[in-house]
């Protein structure tokens, strides 16, 4: 584990409409940008606790996910490290609980990465469909920008692919 | 009528499972198992290119992504008459083998152990005595300073209040039998297992092209050609060796040590009906000469070969439109319209009820080990006999919660050992210039195929019907559907329902005994059914009616 390593982890299920937004952000980042060596971009799917390896190897962790926060669909959220356990105590989604469990289990491995969750209020996470709703799709670029800003803040660098 | 207990949701699993049991005089007399989420991936696949199917199905589950992809490409390969090259077969085995190593270790230590191991009791253990115990049972003894350090770490963890998966456990329950020292030893290995889990996942990355979600599988073979270098194979071999050492020196000894305090569980949680395995790890051709053989056995260990024509899915008690039981090739997924009602006298689950020759059948490690044992599989037989002898129990103990949990460790040893041969063959093939990993093919207009494999949780089958080069119909029957299915038209219970009957329950408000049997099946309903439910189930609930 290298403290300078920044892992951007998208989570969610691309088969359930907006639930896949974290993965779509990660795909877009990989396709459109070249990142400095210390940055890993990971498609975490809904592996939950099985992402422990990825999470425990990160110095700094940026999670991209849907966040249910009783807001309007498309509203962007940002949760910083110390807010996470309290803010997501309720079982917002099955994979998120597992993700939080994985973060908690990092305690047992003596390393909990400093974590930020960049999220979006979804419109539909129940319909079986591989496309985002138009409302959420329209915010994809904003989410990508938020992640890039976070990467810069943490000392990473990138440039658009030619 | 006895007392009804509802455990909803069952924790430390993927997906959403509800268990209801009726308890009379301290024992379960009836049980209902309900999958609370609907899966409809099959409907999404209709009309698509068969070559894309595995990309979809591997996203239907959170954990076993690779195994669905494997079943899917096998189904298409059978439908299109494709024989994959030897190197592709070996790499698929190596990917699948590492999945078993990873999954079973995670299951034993991180999903199941806390049903048997009391973490809070570990805090009062004497580290010196724990070291002595470890000398006696472990193939990797550790000293008292080590256990003392683990104990301090556990204290910090427990005191922090951030218990994560340790939440909602029944610490101090009378059904915990382990002495404090054994609890501390197992807790230490829980933490070691976590470290190993983080590493073992990397094996998939080497030949998978990507991890999570390996992308190297294609219909016709594999595409991770650039990783077929001695350096990459060595990297894989190192992690495999380390994992195998953990399995041999820690996992199996722990299993035997813990089981010796829970021998009564050799008579609880059995199913005694039918055990089904498709078999897995082709040693030569894909459907031939399997490391773990396929077959069907009953409690007398009488063996029969599998005939997949005898598989049918019954929907009488599940929330689907009425219809007769159907083979997966002609299967349908038609959820009933409107709101569904949970009613244990009628329909109560989103899981269909698969039947083999009209009977419910248990799938998974126990089924595979019993089938191999009945066929006289050398390695399996040796390990099973050794386990029975060490615990001083008879063969009947195999058909139980204890047997199911032991079988998982036994097959991890067998598979871990076999991986060495695959690595060697792959190396010598590459060295001699045989680098073929893909068999070119063309899409036929029509074809039908079944992709069978046996994955960590049990027998998995994907069936595809191709017409005009597109998917006309696609159905899959997953291990959790077999094990966690509801009753059928003849009122026959599913395997888990059957296994729960007879389970003692000391305290109905803390039914840890029920959890032990349910967890021993390694439930993973994210693929049997899936969806996210944002506003309910905020807490873990045990309801006593």
TrEMBL record, chain A:
Chain positions recorded as Ni(2+) binding sites: 65, 95
Q: Name one GO molecular function term.
A: aspartic-type endopeptidase activity
The record, for CDD domains, names:
H2MP_MemB-H2up (cd06062)
Which InterPro entries does its entry note?
Pept_A31_hyd_express (IPR004419), Pept_HybD-like_dom_sf (IPR023430), Peptidase_A31 (IPR000671)
Coiled-coil ranges from the UniProt annotation: none
> Does the record's keyword annotation contain Protease?
yes
Q: Which UniProt keywords apply?
A: Aspartyl protease, Hydrolase, Metal-binding, Nickel, Protease
Q: Which SUPFAM superfamilies match?
A: HybD-like
Checking Pfam families in the record gives: HycI (PF01750)
**Any one of the GO BP annotations:** protein processing
Q: Which family does it belong to?
A: Belongs to the peptidase A31 family.
Write the protein's name. HyaD/HybD family hydrogenase maturation endopeptidase
TrEMBL record, chain B:
Q: Which cofactor does it need?
A: Fe cation; Ni(2+)
EC number(s) from the headed UniProt entry: 1.12.99.6
PROSITE patterns (UniProt xref): NI_HGENASE_L_1 (PS00507), NI_HGENASE_L_2 (PS00508)
Q: Which GO terms describe its molecular function?
A: ferredoxin hydrogenase activity; hydrogenase (acceptor) activity; nickel cation binding
The membrane-spanning stretches of this chain are none
One annotated Gene Ontology cellular component of this protein: periplasmic space
Which amino acids does the record list as binding Fe cation? Answer: 64, 527
Q: Where is Ni(2+) bound in this sequence?
A: 61, 64, 524
- Keyword annotations of the record: Iron, Magnesium, Metal-binding, Nickel, Oxidoreductase, Periplasm
The entry's Mg(2+)-binding residues are 42, 530
Give the location in the cell: Periplasm
Pfam families per the UniProt record, alphabetical: NiFeSe_Hases (PF00374)
Lineage: superkingdom: Bacteria
Q: Which InterPro entries match?
A: Ni-dep_hyd_lsu, Ni-dep_hyd_lsu_Ni_BS, NiFe-Hase_large, NiFe/NiFeSe_hydrgnase_LSU
Assembly description = Heterodimer of a large and a small subunit.
Homology family: Belongs to the [NiFe]/[NiFeSe] hydrogenase large subunit family.
Q: What is this protein called?
A: Hydrogenase 2 large subunit
The scientific name of the source species is Desulfobacter hydrogenophilus
Q: What does the organism's lineage look like at the top?
A: Bacteria, Pseudomonadati, Thermodesulfobacteriota, Desulfobacteria, Desulfobacterales
């Amino acid at each position: 584990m290298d403290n300078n390593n920044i892992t951007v982890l998208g989570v969610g299920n691309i088969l359930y409409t907006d639930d896949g937004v974290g993965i779509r952000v990660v795909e877009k980042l990989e396709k459109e940008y070249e990142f400095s060596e210390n940055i890993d971009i990971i498609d975490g799917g809904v592996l939950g606790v099985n992402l422990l390896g990825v999470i425990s190897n990160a110095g700094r962790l940026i999670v991209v996910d849907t966040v249910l926060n009783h807001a309007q669909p498309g509203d962007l959220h940002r949760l910083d490290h110390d807010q996470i356990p309290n803010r997501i105590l309720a079982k917002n989604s099955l994979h998120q609980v597992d993700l939080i469990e994985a973060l908690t289990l990092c305690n047992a491995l003596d390393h909990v990465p400093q974590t930020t969750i960049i999220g979006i209020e979804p419109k539909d996470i129940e319909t079986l469909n591989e496309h985002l709703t138009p409302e959420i799709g329209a915010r994809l670029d904003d989410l990508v920008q938020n992640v890039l800003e976070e990467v810069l803040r943490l000392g990473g660098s990138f440039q658009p692919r030619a | 009528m006895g007392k009804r207990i509802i455990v909803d949701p069952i924790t430390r699993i993927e997906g959403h499972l509800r268990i209801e049991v009726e308890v009379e005089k301290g024992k379960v007399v009836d049980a209902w198992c309900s999958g609370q989420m609907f899966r409809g991936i099959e409907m999404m696949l209709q009309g698509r290119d068969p070559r894309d199917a595995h990309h979809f199905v591997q996203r239907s589950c959170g954990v076993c992504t690779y195994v669905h992809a494997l079943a899917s490409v096998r189904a298409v390969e059978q439908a299109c008459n494709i024989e994959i090259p030897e190197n592709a077969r070996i790499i698929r085995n190596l990917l699948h083998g590492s999945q078993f190593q990873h999954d079973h270790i995670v299951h034993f230590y991180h999903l199941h152990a806390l049903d048997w191991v009391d973490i809070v009791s570990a805090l009062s253990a004497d580290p010196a005595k724990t070291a002595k115990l470890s000398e006696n049972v472990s193939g990797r003894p550790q000293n008292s300073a080590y256990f003392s350090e683990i104990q301090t770490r556990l204290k910090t963890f427990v005191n922090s209040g951030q218990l994560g998966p340790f939440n909602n456990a029944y610490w101090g329950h009378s059904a915990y039998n382990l002495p404090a020292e054994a609890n501390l030893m197992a807790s230490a290995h829980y933490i070691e297992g976590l470290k190993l889990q983080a590493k073992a996942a990397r094996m998939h990355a080497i030949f998978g092209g990507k991890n999570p979600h390996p992308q190297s599988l294609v219909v016709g073979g594999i595409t991770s050609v650039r990783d077929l270098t001695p350096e990459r194979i060595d990297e894989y071999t190192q992690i495999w060796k380390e994992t195998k050492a953990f399995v041999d020196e820690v996992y199996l000894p722990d299993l035997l040590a813990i089981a010796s305090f829970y021998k009564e569980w050799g008579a609880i949680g059995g199913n005694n009906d039918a055990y089904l395995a498709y078999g897995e790890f082709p040693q030569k051709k894909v459907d031939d000469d399997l490391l773990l053989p396929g077959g069907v056995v009953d409690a007398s260990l009488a063996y029969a070969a599998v005939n997949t024509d005898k598989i049918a899915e019954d929907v009488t008690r599940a929330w689907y439109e009425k219809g007769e039981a159907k083979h997966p090739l002609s299967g349908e997924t038609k959820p009933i319209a409107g709101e569904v009602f949970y009613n244990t006298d009628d329909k109560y689950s989103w899981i269909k009820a698969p039947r083999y020759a009209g009977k419910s059948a248990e799938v998974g490690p126990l089924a595979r080990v019993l089938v191999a044992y009945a066929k006289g599989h050398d390695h399996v037989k040796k390990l099973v006999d050794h386990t029975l002898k060490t615990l001083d129990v008879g063969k009947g103990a195999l058909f139980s919660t204890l047997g199911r949990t032991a079988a998982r460790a036994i097959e991890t040893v067998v598979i871990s050992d076999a991986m060495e041969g695959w690595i060697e063959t792959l190396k010598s093939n590459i060295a001699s210039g045989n680098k073929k990993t893909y068999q070119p093919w063309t899409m036929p207009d029509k074809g039908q195929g079944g992709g069978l494999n046996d994955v960590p949780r049990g027998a998995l089958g994907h069936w595809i019907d191709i017409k005009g080069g597109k998917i006309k119909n696609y159905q899959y029957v997953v291990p959790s559907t077999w094990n966690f299915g509801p009753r059928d038209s003849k009122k026959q219970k599913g395997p888990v329902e059957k296994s729960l009957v007879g389970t003692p329950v000391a305290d109905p408000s803390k039914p840890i005994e029920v959890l032990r049997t349910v967890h021993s099946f390694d439930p993973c309903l994210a693929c049997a059914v899936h969806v996210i439910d944002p506003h309910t189930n905020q807490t873990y609930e045990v309801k006593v009616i």
